[in-house]
Amino acid sequence: MVWGEGNPQAPIIILLDNPGARENRDNQPYVCGTRQTLQQATNEVGLTVDDLYVTYILKRKPTRAYDKEKTRDICMSHLKQQLHSKQTRLIVCLGNVAVQSFFQNPEAEVKSLRGKIHEVNGYPTTVAYHPLAVRRRPNLWPLFLEDWKLVADRYFKQ
């Protein structure tokens, strides 16, 4: 099981779909491009590792074929318990899969929801493109950074 990484008491929760299958070689659940892109954006807007906790819809690395929808439904109850135990001030969903799972709407997408704060399951929530999508499509970087500026503005004004 991979619960997350960062400051467990952080006020900002970053929500990804699942830890990658090839990750955790260095005992760190999110590595490579995801980590680098997140760190670059959060550093640029003035957030530190103490402000952030990264967690997942799925709490384990995918190892073989599985029923993704059923597994996400089961894991959502774990996520709800996890969020309930924290002092979450803002949730940032990264990527369409995390957005659709957390918003509980298979039609939800980053493209139409980004740039605003939404109330989801009682939590202020915003969305942004997945860091790996941003790495693959550099034209998304300005939008990704804009979304992290929204997060930082909200956080520093509270």
From TrEMBL:
Entry's transmembrane regions: none
SUPFAM superfamilies, alphabetized: Uracil-DNA glycosylase-like
The organism of origin for this protein: Ureibacillus yapensis
Domain of life where this protein originates: Bacteria
Alphabetical keyword list: 4Fe-4S, DNA damage, DNA repair, Hydrolase, Iron, Iron-sulfur, Metal-binding
Keyword Metal-binding: yes
GO biological process, one term: DNA repair
Pfam families in alphabetical order: UDG
InterPro entries xrefs: UDG_Type-4/5, Uracil-DNA_glycosylase-like, Uracil-DNA_glycosylase-like_sf
Annotated Uracil-DNA glycosylase-like domain residues: 3-149
Record protein name field: Uracil-DNA glycosylase
GO molecular function, one term: 4 iron, 4 sulfur cluster binding
